[in-house]
Write a structure and sequence with these properties.
This protein has 138 residues and is an alpha/beta fold. 46% of the residues lie in helices and 17% in strands. The protein is built from six helices and five strands, in the order βαβαβααβαβα. The protein has helices at 14-28, 42-49, 65-74, 81-91, 107-116, 129-137, and strands at residues 3-7, 33-37, 54-56, 95-100, 120-124. The protein has a five-stranded parallel sheet, with helices on both faces. Helix 4 (81-91) runs parallel beside helix 5. The termini are far apart.
């Protein structure tokens, strides 16, 4: 696998347009691509029609991890980090492209990439001073 595009944004926005076009161009050039998002809409469906595999990122539950793991055996879409990690381990993309809505929302995915030794880049919009000020104080 060449590229794995992931968005954590709750809706289709500017960076999604960017990576959607990039995926179309890369797929047309013959690269293998996978994508993941926390929603399904017509843009995601258009990728599926082009045979670009899609992984649905269900939002994390506030339930304790033990209960989440149990529920994930009954309802697999509830807990996505373990499933995403397994998928990234199995596909071994050359590059993971992460689209995040602010400057710290993709930390968990970046950590997974680091643990698996995968190269990644981020597309970040809506950078907020709040997160920088909070980090600076610590």
């Amino acid at each position: 696998m060449d590229f794995f595009f992931i968005t954590l944004n709750s809706c289709w926005a500017g960076s999604e347009i960017l990576w959607h076009e990039a995926m179309n161009n890369l797929a047309e050039a013959g690269y293998s691509i996978y994508t993941a998002a926390p929603y399904r809409d017509e843009n995601i469906c258009s990728l599926r029609r082009k045979r670009i595999p899609f992984f649905y990122l269900k939002r994390r539950s506030l339930l304790p991890l033990r209960i989440q793991r149990y529920l994930s055996t009954k309802f697999p879409a509830i807990v996505w980090p373990d499933r995403l990690k397994r998928l990234l381990r199995n596909t071994r993309p050359r590059l993971v492209v992460i689209s995040q809505g602010n400057n710290c929302s993709a930390g968990e995915i970046m950590q997974i990439c680091l643990e698996l030794g995968l190269r990644y880049i981020t597309l970040t919009q809506l950078v907020t001073e709040y997160h920088f000020l909070q980090l600076k104080e610590n």
